[in-house]
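Sanity check record (used in CI):
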Amino acid sequence: MKDLRRYLVLKYIQYLVLSSSNAVSTFLGLLGSLYTIILLQSAKVSSKSTTVLISSIAKADILVSVCLVSDMIIWTFDVRILSTAFTSALLQNLLTANAHISCLLLSCIAFEAYLITFFPMESRHIRTVKNAKLTSRIVWILITAECVIFQMEDFLKANSVSAHISSNCTLLFDFSGRLAALLRSLSYFLGIFLRIVNVYFYYKIFFSMSNR
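Expected output for CXCR3 protein:
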């Protein structure tokens, strides 16, 4: 459990403290996720709601691995791709999906830690493995839908520049553009809100433990 706590601290720094990921934090995050996935396979680690959420965070780094491997293959072997703009947008959207999944799940863990500290008995029926799996599944579905919308916007934007589009496509382009802009605004404000909420949760937990 100490190793899992260290991993959570690393992820909190990577996604909720740093304004943007850098090469060092990304590399350490990938190593931590790989070690965590291996560690969670051990019979010594009990299956709890927290470990389910941690496992989902570690698996989200697969998206980062896909982006790094793709960039490496394209750069090393000089692979020619059909649409550079589409591929570049897809890889960027995968990185955004990884960050959003991780932030949401880290906030779920912070909320769970708050419940354990202040409402251990009352929240027992909420903090179950089943609910943790359901929460992870919902987060993945929502962020996947967000990624699809962003990719659709990039695809239609590229086509609108390269060719003449019909009125129906124009309406679709306007709709996807506005929806993507709304999602980006919501993501920005939600990110600020989650940072404040996480600080509040751990502030209360820290002083509660100190008083004890």
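The chain has one domain: 1-210. If this sentence no longer matches the regenerated tokens, the check is flagged for review.
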